[in-house]
Amino acid sequence: MSGSPHRATLGRRGFVVGTAATAAGAALAGPLAGTASAAAFGYTDDGTHYVIDTGANLVFKVRKSNGDLSSLVYRGVEYQGYGGMNSHVESGLGTSTVTIRQSGSTILVSVAHGTLRHYYAARSGENNVYLWTNKADTSVSATRFIVRVKAGLFLNDQPDSYTYAPTTIEASDVFRKSDGQTRSKHFSRLRVMDYDYVGWSANGVGLWMVRSNHEKASGGPFYRSLLRHQSADGGGLYEILYYGQNQTEEQRFGLQGPYVIAFTDGGAPSSSLFPGTLTTPWADSLGLSGYVPASGRGRVAGVGITGRNTAYAYTVGLANSAAQYWSSARASDGYYSISGVLPGTYTLRVFKGELAVYTTSVTVTAGGTTTLNSIAIPSTNDPSNASAIWRINDWNGTPSGFKNADLMTYAHPSDTRAAAWTGNVVIGSGTETSAFPCYLWKDVNSGLLVYFRLTAAQVVVNDTWTSAIPSPPTQPNTRSLTNGSYRGNNHTFTYSVPASAWLTDTSRYNVLRINVVSGSGTTSYLSAGTAVDAIDLLS
């Protein structure tokens, strides 16, 4: 409009609040000698360990002094251990009180370390280890449980493997191969909602970590974190309890689990172990600290969601300070159902892709179902519905579609496969989105230029103009863009540009310069940076 100011909007996305599984393996490099074999279901005490025989093909040991999982023998082959380390919470809890008891077809090992409680359970005839971890407060650091796997058993060259990547390029956990490709344990490609299990399969053996429902974790369905890794020393499989890198929420406390270490004859773990499917009525009477049975939980169900853009998947999330849950909305009508929810009042968010477009509150009661009428997403809640003079990419809470976006979930920005991070953009060229980099850093490509023309009907005169410097978001406050994740809290930067700043001669270009001018960091790809969702020019 003539004489009217225009608004340039730059968005950065990631949120809080499954399910395709992924796993890859290659050749088995020769089995190791076994140290035990399956016998009758039960346990023994060898003085140093509790030795549990599942009565199937799995025998495992828990160290009595600290609760470490020190042996995993499947079909006579030892799988546990690399670098002389055991499997454990964090990097090992240290001196703990460890007890064991058998109740019918279940054996439970309990570990007490300060305020933290950790549990291992075996079921008669199963090749599984069930685990729970209750982190009551911050007095005991508990970011993960890691299964450490012997070297050579599941060789592969996946993005999260650095067996063949000898050069360290960042923080002792990002590596470069001789061909310029990068590897890191952080490069999982996957959001939490995208997987039920991770692991490897080779030569008739599958070793898997089946995740919990993550109700006591943080970061929501779109959180990305380390899931597994391979190095020359061996491999690791993770259950994330609370990971601080690129985190957008405060830590939650309480019992998380069960998560399951599962052995198979090479195939995927049983879907009966998956989050949302696994039921454990046999654990109701075990006395686990913080355990809430199915009867003490509730359900939220919604009949549908209108106002959706059918080109995108929608997710419904529940979150409060105590717990988090989510479910995909049905593509045909937006129906959703979230079960196994702890009683309480939650913020319910509807996400278009990863962009929150609707928020309300819902209360869940034990044993009950809270049914919600159809949710109508207001048109104004989705910025894609705004009429724009021009738009680069579309608003969906991710940088998908921008230059290098897909690669950055499994590679470092310096990876040889990445296109140049510099280069300017011309509106109307047809390559606006693919030419615009998914990330902007203060020390790498700040000052990117967008060229565009405006008509006299859109603006009237031209002059230079510089925006005020906005304050950066406070979360996340760690490195993020270099470890396989673009997400952060939704934050939209909006600038009201006076009409006098624009050029109306359509034979000449207006120039928008985008600078990264605030935030924390060091240099290069660790300087202050942001992921970009979309850019609009609105009248």
Structure characteristics:
5-stranded antiparallel beta sheet; 7-stranded antiparallel beta sheet; 37 strands; globular; mainly beta; 539 residues
Could you characterize what this model shows?
- The chain is mostly beta strands and 539 residues long.
- 1% of the residues lie in helices and 37% in strands.
- The chain has one helix and 37 strands.
- The chain has one helix at 432-435, and strands spanning 6-12, 42-45, 49-53, 58-63, 69-74, 77-78, 88-89, 97-103, 106-113, 116-123, 128-135, 144-150, 167-170, 174-176, 182-184, 197-202, 205-210, 228-231, 234-240, 254-264, 298-302, 305-306, 314-319, 324-328, 336-341, 344-352, 355-364, 369-372, 375-376, 388-392, 425-426, 439-441, 448-452, 491-497, 510-514, 529-531, 535-538.
- The strands form ten sheets. The chain has a seven-stranded antiparallel sheet, with no helix packed on it.
- Strand 26 (344-352) and strand 27 (355-364) form a beta hairpin.
- The longest helix has 4 residues, at 432-435.
- The protein is globular and about 85 Å long.
- The N and C termini lie close together (7 Å).
- 47% of the residues are buried.
- The model is unreliable at 1-38 (pLDDT under 50).
